[in-house]
Amino acid sequence: MIRCIAVDDEAYASEILATHIRKLPSLELVGTTTNAFEALAMVQEGKVDLVFLDIQMPELTGIQFLKICGQKCKVILTTAYPEYALEGFEHDVIDYLLKPISFERFYKAVQKAELLFHPPAPVVNETIETIALPAPGTDYMFIKGESKNKFIKVNYDDILYVEGLKNYISVFTAKERIITYLTLREMELYLPKNRFLRVHKSYIVAIDKIRMIDGNSIFINENVIPVGETYREEFFKIIRETK
């Protein structure tokens, strides 16, 4: 089980997270607190694996917390202010939850955490071509599933964004999330370049699925995706050209 704490200076907000945590058997609620220093002490004592952390707190902000705790735990940020997303992702947080936090969105973030704590076994003795099969000249591709001979058909129109985690990726559609043992760079080569764009070391987005851009944050449905510094100039050039 993943040991968790919920940290928010507003008690009702941390209790909402606690309620979500209790619903998932893979998570163990170690505690809730409105005091960031108390949470930091628990992390430093090795009692916590995952922190649900409010980014705006008095005395010690979420970003300061991240800088102090370093690699001693994983963090999912929570806040009502999307403009802080980019800085959070630069500190390698798992995800960024905008308040009010629905259980569905919370669960998506937990799935990302579970992949980091319990990564899938690598596919052995398979070439890139058998891991993911692009379909040239068509509007879909086949993605290798979790079993040896399972391939999942994915329409390009259905893809919202792709997230890379080490040597595997998550392909997010409106209805499902598909995990496959593939690098983000390999996936980038397969996707149509006029429809998909690498915007961060960990993200590829479907251009037509972007709901809003606010500063260096991209909104696709309720998901916030950062624009990395390396990709910023090219991204905004393409966005300006599509006006």
UniProtKB/TrEMBL annotation:
It comes from the Bacteria. Residues 3-114 form the Response regulatory domain. Keywords: Phosphoprotein. The keyword Phosphoprotein applies. The modification 4-aspartylphosphate is found at residue 54. Residues 143-241 form the HTH LytTR-type domain. GO terms for molecular function: DNA binding; phosphorelay response regulator activity. It holds the Pfam family Response_reg. This is Two component transcriptional regulator, LytTR family. It comes from Pedobacter caeni.
